[in-house]
Amino acid sequence: MPKEGFDYIIVGAGTAGCLMANRLSANPDKRVLLIEAGGKDDYHWIHIPVGYLYCIGNPRTDWCYQTEAEAGLNGRSLRYPRGKVLGGSSSINGMIYMRGQSRDYEHWADVTGDDTWRWERVLRAFRRHENHWRLDDPKTAPEGFAELHGHRGEWRVEQQRLRWPILDAFAAACTQAGIPATGDFNAGTNEGVGYFEVNQRKGLRWNTAKAFLRPTAMGRPNFELWTGAQVRKLRLLHDDAGLRCGGVEVLTPHGVEQPWLNAGGEVILCAGAVGSPQILQLSGLGPASLLQGLGITVEQELPGVGANLQDHLQIRAVYKVQGTQTLNQRAASLLGKAKIALEYALRRSGPMSMAPSQLGAFTRSSPTKAWPDLEYHVQPLSLDAFGEPLHGFNAFTASVCNLNPTSRGSIHIQSPDATVAPAIRPNYLSTEADRLVAAESLKLTRRIVAQPALAAFRPEEYKPGPQYQTDEDLTRLAGDIATTIFHPVGTCRMGRKDDPGAVVDSRLRVRGVSGLRVADASVMPTITSGNTNSPTLMIAEKLAGWLGA
């Protein structure tokens, strides 16, 4: 333990925490401590893009959470991956660069009463850390591109390094079904079909530890990083000014340590939509009935802590195809696997450079929708379940998710022991609106696959199966086959002063506790209309700016 305190203690060296550490430690007069429960990101499969298959479900890199049995999923429990390693979920996720839609942030501004969350304001934060491949040569970038994207930042965005004929055909089928082609999902409205851009550099995963910690932050004398250190709870102090956070209590390999804050310092929770509400509740900040039932002293009643959980639920449709090769066949033999490995070793391309999903599409579940409310992740492969072997026939998978679910779940601790996982209840498909979108999305997938562009491949629906036709059938099937797409948010949501469910204000300060903020996906009032990793970085960038970094 240092002889003096810290000006900032950041809990969680994941997507938000790495950026926060970089920005705040840039001031040599401020001492910054970054605490990570997981280990270093030195596992080789973190950095090879296809290695997510070996990182998710691996206790070396994943918290290995499970949801409670879900009524909307017909009693099933789902694996709930969250990164437990330097870089957090950016070390195990799908690498897709996606901001969401401008209307997401307009809504945040409305519900918080703070115009700093409007699209034109958050755009500056996105651009500050972005390093987009199209601006490597500004002369070749589309007109106006530099007004929307950045190039001098740490967060590298690149094209994917392979294409598949079956995915090109699916994209053409989308346009025939009325979904326009797009070259940029991140201009404010992501409607359209195209290949996803990814957070990679030359065929390697670009996680936030690479982007924001090395070599900059790690080389600064005012910066400390603790790995293998789990925060048990916050150190809350009562004084004449009220309740304040004075530091944290950490379980390390050396025992329990208690780094403390200098006067005027702050603890910043960046532990994610599962970890941040867990730490708050363990510290006596949360729903009084929950805490009292576990024998935890209520320091400040905040009923919204752990509530408002939102996630994107994907429904996976699988189609057998003929007359083309998919990864199922390409990786079926030892020789095929050897060729794939050699291609990656020589050129950093091929299937080992693949993000989990290559082609994306954003569209509407109904013509009456005012904006795109569906996202497709399309893959040139198929399997029964994540982690299972590929099928023995050529096929593609079209996964579709409802971007704006109305179902709300919760994350609540089950014990005062920080090493006991909280109860995760997403409450998927619990509203009629979400069940209707699920049925409509499966029908839309069928309409796309029926277009002429795919006819040459004679697609045959393998899953869920053409025998299921009614809305009732399709809704029940959605419960049987849907899985999380790993985007939990909202469990420490921000809001106005008069909003009883808000946990933090619009500047991310925890209500009723000075010296404590939350900056991660948990503060989102509503989930963004797309993948959530880059919006989480933007949130951290906003807070860093408010703190003068």
From TrEMBL:
<comment type="similarity">
    <text>Belongs to the GMC oxidoreductase family.</text>
</comment>
<dbReference type="InterPro" id="IPR012132">
    <property type="entry name" value="GMC_OxRdtase"/>
</dbReference>
<dbReference type="Pfam" id="PF05199">
    <property type="entry name" value="GMC_oxred_C"/>
</dbReference>
<dbReference type="InterPro" id="IPR007867">
    <property type="entry name" value="GMC_OxRtase_C"/>
</dbReference>
<dbReference type="InterPro" id="IPR036188">
    <property type="entry name" value="FAD/NAD-bd_sf"/>
</dbReference>
<feature type="domain" description="Glucose-methanol-choline oxidoreductase N-terminal">
    <location>
        <begin position="272"/>
        <end position="286"/>
    </location>
</feature>
<feature type="domain" description="Glucose-methanol-choline oxidoreductase N-terminal">
    <location>
        <begin position="83"/>
        <end position="106"/>
    </location>
</feature>
<protein>
    <submittedName>
        <fullName>GMC family oxidoreductase</fullName>
    </submittedName>
</protein>
<dbReference type="Pfam" id="PF00732">
    <property type="entry name" value="GMC_oxred_N"/>
</dbReference>
<keyword id="KW-0285">Flavoprotein</keyword>
<keyword id="KW-0274">FAD</keyword>
<dbReference type="InterPro" id="IPR000172">
    <property type="entry name" value="GMC_OxRdtase_N"/>
</dbReference>
